[in-house]
Design a protein that fits this description.
Elements lengths: L3 H18 L10 H34 L8 E5 L5 E3 H15 L4 E6 L6 E2 L6 E9 L10 E9 L9 H4 L8 E7 L3 E7 L10 E7 L4 E6 L10 E3 L10 H11 L11 E2 L5 H11 L2 E4 L14 H14 L3 E3 L19 E4 L1 H15 L1
Parallel strand pairs: 3-5, 11-12, 11-13
Antiparallel strand pairs: 1-2, 3-4, 5-6, 6-7, 7-8, 8-9, 9-10, 13-15, 14-15
The structure holds 2,5-anhydro-1,6-di-O-phosphono-D-glucitol and manganese (II) ion (2 copies).
The site of one manganese (II) ion has 4 residues, from β5.
Length: 361
């Protein structure tokens, strides 16, 4: 079994060799300076992922103890989005914040649970955004939750990082991933194409409870183009826009409708769990725009939920849109910006897209 430590060591060695020889796919036609820059970015990114993993293991430990560790229930405060914070939202946020701000590569951190970005080392090359505990409503009932992260380059080295430094499109991400705290603890991540010189795409590791090490499960994960499994919170049906209602009507009609096949619903109530299922066996995940609160474009947050999941899904051959537009093309205007999300198996995402495009005409 390959441990995460071994995996990263090989990756960095390959990278250094590639830098010297310019042999790999991503490095061909690069100048020496470009190649060195890529290797530096890669090694800093790996270091930051190791820090995230270390904090993630502590969160997994707490979840395993559950009620016995007194981590259930409300923290008694609201976050910037007006949502009640759970105790574990706050604990997970603090663990990640403390660990990342102590990492010399990290110039700043932004979290779902913090109004503004927290500056770290001004000389760091990277910015890290995270959803410390995704699926908070699952904590108290012993159901899956996760941590989602997105790593961006920092362009103002030497200066104190501010909110504006984080407002980069998803396409600028250097890496993204999640930890899933489920029946077992899973780590999935991917590097941006330019950094992924080994072409390993999306990789998945499982935490071995006996050794405390993450061990490689799979590389080059690929999402099937077609699916008959969908995830959406159907209780919001009356608030959806007409094309989304039409899509779900057609799906529910099964073999007797236009789709001519039966579909199955799965809803984990933690995006991290739904995306994990899609990486494992395909499917479509939707949190659409609705009319419940016209000031919110959707429920999910662009920078620490939608963008990192979009990078994983696209790198695995799937599609990630707001129903029409590619999510990673969004130019963010706020670190807590919300966005509608339709992602997963490519052909199914295209069905949703076609309905929305037709009805826009
Ligand atoms: P968070 O717990 O970080 O606020 O995110 C929860 C999100 C997402 O993970 C999940 O898919 C969705 O909210 C669940 O929404 P419903 O409450 O509508 O099921
Ligand atoms: Mn979340
Ligand atoms: Mn959260």
């Amino acid at each position: 079994m390959t441990t995460l430590t071994e995996y990263f060591t090989v990756l960095l060695t390959d990278h250094q060799t590639d830098t010297a020889n310019h042999t790999s796919h991503a490095m061909q036609s690069k100048t020496d300076a470009d190649a060195t820059h890529i290797t530096d970015a890669m090694s800093a990114t790996i270091d930051v992922i190791n820090t995230l993993v270390h904090a993630g293991k502590q969160i997994a430990d707490l979840l395993r103890q559950g009620a016995l560790a007194d981590i259930h229930g409300e923290a008694g405060a609201e976050n910037v989005q007006g949502e009640q914070q759970k105790k574990l939202d706050v604990i997970a946020n603090d663990l990640l914040l403390d660990a990342l701000t102590a990492n010399p590569h990290c110039a700043g951190v932004a979290s779902e649970e913090l109004d503004d970005a927290t500056p770290a080392n001004p000389d760091g090359k990277l910015l890290v955004l995270f959803d410390p505990l995704d699926g908070s409503s699952n904590i108290d009932i012993n159901m899956p939750t996760g941590t989602i992260f997105s790593i961006l380059p920092y362009h103002n080295q030497g200066q104190t990082a501010q909110n504006a430094d984080f407002l980069q499109p998803g396409d600028s991400q250097l890496a993204a991933g999640y930890l899933l705290y489920g029946a077992s603890t899973i780590l999935a991540f991917t590097f941006a194409t330019a950094l992924d010189t080994d072409q390993s795409g999306v990789v998945m590791f499982g935490l071995n409870p006996d050794t405390g090490e993450f061990e490689l499960i799979k590389e080059c994960i690929s999402i099937a183009e077609d699916t008959t499994e969908y995830a959406i919170n159907g209780s919001n049906y009356r608030h959806w826009l007409p094309p989304m209602r039409q899509y779900i009507d057609e799906v529910l009609a099964g073999t007797s409708g236009i789709r001519q096949k039966n579909f199955n619903t799965r809803w984990v109530a933690a995006m991290v769990g739904d995306v994990h299922r899609i990486l494992c066996r395909g499917g479509i995940f939707i949190y659409p725009q609705d009319t419940k609160d016209p000031s919110k474009a959707g429920k999910l947050r662009l920078m620490y939920e939608a963008n990192p999941m979009s990078l994983l899904v696209e790198r695995a051959g799937g599609a990630a849109t707001d129903a029409v537009k590619r999510i990673m093309d969004y130019q963010p205007t706020d670190i807590h910006q919300r966005v509608p999300v339709v992602l997963g198996s490519k052909n199914e995402v295209q069905v949703v897209r076609a309905l929305h495009q037709q009805q826009q005409l």
